[in-house]
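Please fill in the sequence for the structure shown.

STRUCTURE ENCODING:
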């Protein structure tokens, strides 16, 4: 039971979780520290390939990458057949959180399937792994390991490649310069880290291809035509005519 590896993994997951929220602080300043942490892990490259930026530039990059694509960071927006399946997946994610006492009620509140929340949950599981390993709680240690394998296989690891590809397409204008901006580089590293972590835990992830994946549709029976606001708009248009 390796406590050092578990703590390092938790630190990286925590960094990634914070970085995929709107930057109130400059997470780019922490990149050298994260690369030092990664040097202690022999199964992932320590090079994040992220250039340093001022906070204002980082905030502008975030708005450019995510501002017009609100569903980009949510697991259940990627290719589920209908919104009822979306509800089932959200319930399953929440089940993981409840089982380990994880509540999404801090300074920033997001849907349970937001990338930052799922990354933070993996951080918590890695910390619990380190704690149980340190105290020799073998049964609890195995539970923590199995939960990480299950969560990566059923959730985070299943869509992280699609997220990285989708973000690359969203900033393809910058990608032609050979860099693509801090969030494309961050997403590439995040996908590499999650896949490498899953492989280390013995989880076989299927390659996630964005091609052919559509955003989860709304119920086709729901229509804006039935909305009172839409009816008010129709009345205004008729008056103008």
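FILLED IN BY: designer on duty
SEQUENCE:
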């Amino acid at each position: 039971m390796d406590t050092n590896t578990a703590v390092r993994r938790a630190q990286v997951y925590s960094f990634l979780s914070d970085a995929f929220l709107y930057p109130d602080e400059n997470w780019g300043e922490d990149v050298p520290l994260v690369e030092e942490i990664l040097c202690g892990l022999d199964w992932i490259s320590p090079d994040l390939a992220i250039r340093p930026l001022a906070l204002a530039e980082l905030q502008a990059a975030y708005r450019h990458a995510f501002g017009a694509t609100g569903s980009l960071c949510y697991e259940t927006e990627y290719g589920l057949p209908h919104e009822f399946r979306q509800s089932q997946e959200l319930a399953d994610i929440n089940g993981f959180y409840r089982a380990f006492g994880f509540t999404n009620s801090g300074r920033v509140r997001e849907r349970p399937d937001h990338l930052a929340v799922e990354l933070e949950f993996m951080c918590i599981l890695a910390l619990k792994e380190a704690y149980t390993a340190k105290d020799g709680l073998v049964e609890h240690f195995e539970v923590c390991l199995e939960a990480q394998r299950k969560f990566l296989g059923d959730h985070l690891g299943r869509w992280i490649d699609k997220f990285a590809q989708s973000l690359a397409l969203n900033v393809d204008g910058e990608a032609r310069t050979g860099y693509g901006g801090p969030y494309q580089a961050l997403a590439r590293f995040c996908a590499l880290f999650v896949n490498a972590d899953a492989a280390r835990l013995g989880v076989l992830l299927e390659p996630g291809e964005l091609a052919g994946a559509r955003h989860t549709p709304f119920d086709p029976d729901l229509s804006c035509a039935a909305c009172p606001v839409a009816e008010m708009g129709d009345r205004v248009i008729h008056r103008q005519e």
